[in-house]
Specification:
The complex is a heterodimer of chains A (about 130) and B (about 550). Chain A is an alpha/beta fold and about 130 residues long. Chain A has a single domain, classed as Rossmann fold, CATH 3.40.50. Chain A contains five helices and five strands, in the order βαβαβαβαβα. In chain A, α3 links the parallel β3 and β4. Chain B is of the alpha/beta class and about 550 residues long.
Chain lengths: ~130, ~550
């Protein structure tokens, strides 16, 4: 049997809004993925080290307090530095349209904005993430 | 008993209702109901019609009474909005202390009647701007406060002896309050004259909002310190705002919001009584903060039930004697989580309806969300529309002319009773667990809320619940909205200012003050005088919070989902 897709759902920085991240974590679990949730208040270093230790195929980052450019950028840099940039990274939360291009240029594969259905997000994972 | 209807009349109404229902069923057989079930946003079943038969045992004097009289269902003040409108208090905080001061002055010039401060994430978590944890977050979702210097700039030119100030701050609430007191006293305004509120409600942080610093037990101790200090020295200050708002935003139902908030209130009261204060000394300064969500009648019923329940809890459970101890005074904010990033102008309408619920529910103060708040920090234009919304409700619509206009509605009274009963069931369960601190340790409220949030999201995905512009009436094209952009250079400027403060202060004085603070924390002396001393010496927020962290330890999110 093929290995299940492993996903790290992560909250970087001081932002405490975890309603979305926890709902997504449940939706991934219900969809049959293996899910690790970091809990709140992680540094980008902690997120990347958890991703490598847990050998995940994807990281789902969540940000609702405006620090996404800095925090997501830091995660992408650290993944590159660790040679782990084959891990697919997505982001979600309150992110202005004009920042989406910047985040994609950093290597974030997809941004899910408020109002995106869980089904759409789970489908995206099925289509874009394969166990490594 | 003062029943609303004669028994015989109720019987007749009930029997006519039976025949009407038969008729309705026939009609629905031809034209089926629009939906399989009619439920509130919290999932509560709503019947097609309410009549006097639903409230047949209703005892007017016991259940409602009069405004300003027990059980306060109709309002805590005798004259309610006939005498004084609710306080229009817009939550504001952005960028630097200068930026927020400018927004405060603008809002006051536009007729706002109280100040409400939003802090940035580092401040909320007790870190200075220069700490590595703070990078990228300075001034993003509120104002950055590192030292008393920032506090002085934030309130400069504002009459803090006449305006009341609310500060949404939790783990470092005693520190920010100490800075505020120090700021006012440097301006010659004695602490006894200061009016305002610190949120200072840590239980709901562990449950829902998730800004935390120290573990639950020492967090409670610091809260009791502030309540004790306020009771003695800052008598016009609300030392805690027991908050359901964030519980609701995290995905709770209306009943969970109400029940967990009152259970938190019970836990605080018990802790302060244990310190040795008498109930009527401090209970009058306890204040509350609720969410006003999109389900119009359910929210009104929730506010009414909240007042009746708290009055009952204070009187029966805690034997309060003073009338003021029984009052559930509350601030309301419209529901951020009901707003949509899609078609954002629709949010003006949602906020209006939610604000109307709060007013019909008898709120003491109100923040109306700006339509762009789901996208970024509100622009001045958007904040103005939100303030105008309140002014239109207050001064054009006539809804503030009579007290509790929905009192006696068969529907609203039934809903009020149902919500009250369901909330008491939760409180009983939490009592059985040994109180809210124990329930939080068991992860009980956290998981109840997570379940409700997930259920709601699934209902949206399945279109069982509608969000206009999101899962119905969605459009491809979006009208562009101008949003507030954070100042990228702010972080460095803020770090420079704090360094300047550090270079010009008396280091020895700071060191001594922090040492004394540490001793107070380790012992059982009230920390507030030591915090005011340290704040006055320009100790930084983090220097003071690091003392807490060192003595009390750090709380980590269990990360359950």
């Amino acid at each position: 049997m093929a290995r299940k897709i492993r996903i790290l759902v992560a909250k970087a920085g001081l932002d405490g809004h975890d309603r979305g991240a926890r709902i997504i974590a449940r939706a991934y679990r219900d969809a049959g993925f293996e899910v690790i949730y970091t809990g709140l208040h992680q540094t980008p270093e902690q997120v990347v080290s958890a991703a490598i230790q847990e050998d995940v195929d994807m990281i789902g980052l969540s940000s609702l307090a405006g620090a996404h450019l800095y925090l997501f950028g830091k995660v992408m840099d650290l993944l590159k530095a660790e040679g782990a940039d084959d891990i697919i990274v997505t982001g979600g939360g309150i992110i202005p349209e004009e920042d989406i291009e910047k985040l994609k240029a950093m290597g974030v594969r997809e941004i899910f904005l408020p109002g995106t259905s869980l089904e759409v997000i789970v489908d995206w994972v099925h289509q874009n993430v394969k166990p490594r | 008993m003062s029943r609303l209807y004669r028994e015989e009349e109720v019987r007749e109404i009930d029997s006519e209702k039976g025949s009407w229902q038969e008729q309705m069923k026939k009609q629905l057989a031809v034209r089926p109901p629009r939906k399989d079930e009619f439920t509130t946003v919290s999932g509560r079943q709503i019947r097609e019609l309410y009549t006097p038969a639903d409230t047949k045992d209703f005892d007017y004097r016991a259940r409602l009474g009069f405004p300003g009289r027990y059980p306060y269902t109709r309002g805590v003040q005798t004259s309610m909005y006939r005498g004084k409108l609710w306080t229009m208090r817009m939550f504001a905080g952005l960028g630097s202390a200068e930026d927020t001061n400018k927004r405060f002055r603008y809002l006051v010039s536009q007729g706002q009647t109280g100040l409400s401060t939003a802090f940035d994430m580092p401040t909320l978590m007790g870190y200075d701007t220069e700490d590595p944890m703070s990078r990228g977050e300075c001034g993003r979702c509120g104002v950055a406060i590192d030292t008393l210097k920032d506090m002085e700039i934030l309130f400069s030119g504002l009459p803090v002896d006449r305006l009341t100030t609310s500060m949404t701050i939790n783990p470092p609430a005693p520190v920010l309050w100490a800075m505020y007191i120090a700021m006012a006293e440097k301006r010659g305004i004695p602490r006894a004259k200061l009016g305002g509120t610190i949120q200072n409600d840590m239980l709901k942080e562990f449950i829902a909002q998730k800004t935390f610093m120290c573990p639950p037990e020492p967090s409670m101790r610091l809260i009791v310190d502030t309540i004790e200090f306020g009771t003695r020295e800052v008598p016009r200050w609300n030392t805690i705002s027991i908050s359901g708002y964030h519980i609701r935003e995290a995905g709770a139902t209306a009943v969970q919001e109400l029940a967990f908030t009152l259970a938190d209130g019970i836990a605080y009261v018990e802790a302060v009584l244990e310190r040795g204060l008498k109930i009527d000394e401090f209970a009058p300064r306890l204040s509350f903060f609720f969410n006003s969500h999109i389900d119009f009648f359910e929210e009104i019923a929730k506010f009414r039930a909240a007042r009746r329940m708290w009055a009952n809890i204070m009187k029966k459970r805690f034997k309060a004697k003073s009338e003021r101890s029984l009052w559930l005074r509350f601030h309301t904010q419209t529901a951020g989580c009901s707003l949509t990033a899609q078609q954002p102008f629709n949010n003006v309408v949602r906020t209006t309806v939610e604000a109307l619920s709060a007013v019909l529910g008898g709120t003491q103060s109100l923040h109306t969300n700006s339509f762009d708040e789901v996208l970024a920090i509100p622009t001045e234009e958007a904040a103005t529309i939100a303030l105008r919304t309140q002014q239109i409700l207050a001064e054009e619509t006539g809804v503030a002319s009579t007290i509790d206009p929905l009192g006696g509605s068969y529907f609203v009274e039934t809903l009020t009773d149902e919500i009250e009963k369901a909330a008491y069931d939760y409180i009983d369960k939490i009592d059985d667990m040994g109180g809210m601190l124990k329930a939080i340790e068991k992860n009980y409220p956290q998981m109840e809320i997570a379940d409700a949030a997930y259920k709601f999201q699934r209902a949206i995905d399945r279109q069982q619940k509608v969000m206009v512009g999101v899962n119905k009436y969605a459009t491809e094209e979006e009208i562009p909205v101008d949003i507030y952009r954070a100042d990228e250079a702010l972080e460095e400027r803020q770090i420079a200012r704090t360094n300047q403060v550090k270079n010009s202060r008396n280091e020895k004085e700071v060191k001594n003050a922090l040492e004394r603070l540490g001793e107070a924390c380790s012992g059982n002396e009230n920390v507030m005088p030591y915090l005011i001393e340290a704040a006055s010496a320009y100790a930084t927020l983090q220097e003071m919070c690091d003392v807490f962290r060192k003595v009390f330890g750090i709380y980590r999110d269990p990360g359950t989902f």
